[in-house]
Design a protein that fits this description.
binds magnesium ion, about 325 residues, DNA_Partitioning_ATPase, 15 helices, 6-stranded parallel β-sheet, about 50% helix, AAA_dom, P-loop_NTPase, ParA family protein, globular, binds adenosine-5'-triphosphate
Length: about 325
Amino acid sequence: MKFRETQVIVFANQKGGCGKTSSLVSTAAAFAASGYSVCVVDTDPQCDSTGNLGVDPDAMIRQRRYTLADAYLSKVPAAQIAVTPEDRFGGLISVVPGHRALSSVEIRLEREVFGLLVHNGISEDSMEELRHEHRFRLRASLDSLRGRFDVVLIDTPPNLGFLMTSALVAADWCVIPTFPSGYDLKALQVITRTVEKIRKSYNPGLSLAGVLLGNYDRKAILDKEIHVALCKRFTPALVFATTIGRSVRFRESTERGITIFEHPDAKEQAANCAALVKEMINRGAKGAFGATLNPFPGTELVEQVIDSGLEDVETVNG
Ligand SMILES: Nc1ncnc2c1ncn2[C@@H]1O[C@H](COP(=O)(O)OP(=O)(O)OP(=O)(O)O)[C@@H](O)[C@H]1O
Ligand SMILES: [Mg+2]
């Protein structure tokens, strides 16, 4: 173990196509390239990070192996679900594979609650207790990974439903990936509020690690202005100084099912992602990642940001 404790980091944003999976997979590869052990947990029924790391969810089912859906439906510990593609990343990246069945998990769990109401006549309070336990199932399952990996990275689907909630309940840190476009920036206020709500209601240990700007055009003045405005609005402590540059290499990697570190012509982009992970680790050395309890920016900053809205950012974006 390179960190004192396993760090569970969720990449969350209800906005679709804002770079959650690309940045998560690149971060996983960058951590592995620096010798950190990583487990990627895919809560998205689209299974993009699962596929990108070379795991086929249907093959898992054919081999009678578990997927993450079993963590929710049958309380299977994630350590029993994780697979390690030994031929990639020197075996340093494991995957808890997603499956399309994840999309029906919430309905199936709710059906159980109603079944108990109809057949056993359980009380409203008991129903709420059950729902509460369902929200904590992922967290309970991921407990089995603590102490086994340096970092656990959770990919999330593009909506604020049950799967996203359970991922935020399970994490220590939240990274919010965003692209420099108007729609993406509007989405920031919603996800920031959601993180705060989950922190208050279910997971006081959840901290915002930072907003991560991806698909960033280094030649565009507008993109630079958006980064500056984000830093001003969120404070630099809540925005990664490293941005992920716009490059067709990322799309090529997505198409080929490889990480940016495995792309033969993407040395510059891989170095960019390595710099991001270095920033995460350096911030960690200043107090994060196990050294103190609430080391990054502190939740009072998040509350200030929410109170003051995001007008500057929206103005820059026109
Ligand atoms: N830095 C970048 N430069 C160019 N293209 C990028 C960059 N980062 C991501 N992309 C591309 O943008 C698209 C969306 O990215 P990605 O799949 O990571 O988003 P997502 O938030 O995970 O989407 P979803 O919400 O559907 O899960 C992909 O085709 C990806 O290759
Ligand atoms: Mg995705």
